[in-house]
Amino acid sequence: MSDLSLPLQIVLFAAAAAAIGVLGTRLSSIADQLADRTGLGEAFVGAVFLGACTSLPGITASVTAAIDGFPSLAIANAVGGIAVQSTFLVIADLAYPKSNLEHAAASVPNMLQGALLMTLLATLLLGVLAPQFQIAGVHPLSVVLFIGYGFGLRLVHRSHARPMWKPQITDETREDRPEARPGPVPPLARLWLDFAVIGFLLLLAGLLVTRSGEALGMRLGLTESLVGGLLVAVATSLPELVTSLAAVRRGALTLAVANVLGGNTFDTLFAAVADVAYRPGSIYAAVTWRESTMITLTIIMSGVLLLGLLSRERRGPANIGFEGILVLLIYLCGVVVLGSGG
Description:
Elements: H1 6-38, H2 42-54, H3 56-67, H4 71-94, H5 101-104, H6 108-129, H7 140-161, H8 188-220, H9 224-236, H10 238-250, H11 253-277, H12 289-311, H13 322-339
Helix pairs in contact: 1-2, 1-8, 1-10, 2-11, 3-4, 3-8, 3-9, 3-11, 4-9, 4-10, 4-11, 4-12, 4-13, 6-7, 6-11, 6-12, 7-11, 8-9, 10-11, 12-13
C-alpha cells in the first residue's frame, strides 16, 4: 500500500469509508427486525449484535495496526473511535427534532451500558498507568477486559428480561415495542445470514481503510496518534453514525442509543485484542501521553452521556440536552490533544 501513489491511496481510503457507510444503513434495518423477531429487545440487540458488528472495521484496524508495529495507532483508533461515536450520538440527537434523544430513548439497559463503558475504560487506563506486567507478552488486564465485558452483558440482558425498575414514561418517550411491518416477512434465518454477510464485508472494508490510512499517515508525516485517533477512527466509526441515523428515522430510538453505547463498550476490547496481536510486549507499555489523555477524556464523555440518560432533560438548544453540548466540547479538546506536539 505504501508503494501506491498519494491520489490512489486517498481514493482507496475514501472508497473503503464509503462502503462502510453504505453497509451500515442496511445493517440498521436488519437489526431492528431481529430485535422484534427474537424478542431480545432493541437495547440488547443494538448493544451486542449491532454494536459489535459495526465495530468490526475498528477492531480490524486496531489488530492490523498492532501486527504492523503501530501500537499508538492501535490504541488511538480504539479510544478515538469511542470518542467520535459519542459525538455521533449528538448528531443522531439533532436528527430527532421532537425532543432530546436521551429523554425519548429512556432505557435501563442503555444506562447499564454507559456504566459498563466507564468501568472498562477505567480498567484500560489502569493498564496504561500501573506498573507493566505481562504474561507471554499480554497484560493480565486484557483478560479482565473480556471478563468484565461478558459480565456486563449478562447484567444488560437480565435488566431487559427482568427489569427491577423502569424510567417514567412521558408523552415524548418512545418505548421499545415490536412493530408491524408492511410486506412479506423474511425468514429469521435469512435475517441472520444477511447480518453475517454484511459483517464480513465491513471487516474487509476495515482492513482496507487501515492499510490505506497507515500509508497516508506515513506519506503525509502524521503521528500514529493523529492517524489512529482521527483519520482511521472516524472512517471505521461510520457504521455507528449511519446505523444510528437510520434507526432514528425508523423510530427505533432505543436501538440508536444502544448501538452507540454498545459499540463503544465493545470498542474497549480493541485494546485487549491488539495487546495479543502486538508481539514485542504489552501494548500498554507503548502507549504515549496522548492516548492516556484521550482515554481520560473519553471516560468523562461517557460519564456526561450517562448523566444525560439519567437526568432525561426534555429539550435544550436544537433539542439536544446539556450532555450533547458538553460531549462536543470535550471531543474538540481531544482533537487538540491529538494534534498537539511535544
